[in-house]
Amino acid sequence: MSQRLLTTVVGHSHRCDPEAVGMDAARAISNTHEWFEVNSGWAPPDEDELAEWLGDGVCRCPDDCLVEPDGWCLHGLASWWLILRAMDADA
Questions:
Q1: pTM of the model
Q2: Which of 6-10, 32-36, 39-43, 63-67 has the lowest mean pLDDT?
Q3: What is the CB-side half-sphere exposure of residue 60 using CA atoms within 13 A?
Q4: Closest by Cα among 14, 11, 10 to 73
């Protein structure tokens, strides 16, 4: 991850980084794990909350951005659906 993107994600400056637009799910998940290392207070949604989001065709990212379930925000963080799916695949 570039230092510029890390600064944008960690500082949550709401600036769009051009690198975030062209990334894929694997990179967004990796970015999110790096974000977890320097941000505290996050917790995955419970099953009911995730189901409600998915029923509405949306999902949140750990920084609370609203995205498509299989997407990532302009800060480069993956949706909770992508993160939890990747964790299940690793188990």
A1: 0.76
A2: 6-10
A3: 13
A4: 14
| CB 90 within 8 Å of CB 81 | no
Determine the Cα–Cα distance for residues 43 and 14; give it in Å rounded to an integer: 21
**Is the confidence at residue 12, as pLDDT, over 50?**
no
Stretch 26-31: mean pLDDT, rounded?
94
CB 60 within 8 A of CB 50: no
**DSSP-derived secondary structure for 21-78:** HT--HHHHHHHHHHHHHH--S--PPPHHHHHHHHHTT-EE-TT--EE-TT-B-TTSPB
Q: How far apart are CA 59 and CA 37, in angstroms?
A: 22
Q: Give the pLDDT band of residue 63 (cuts 50, 70, 90).
A: very high
CA-atom Rg of the chain in angstroms: 12
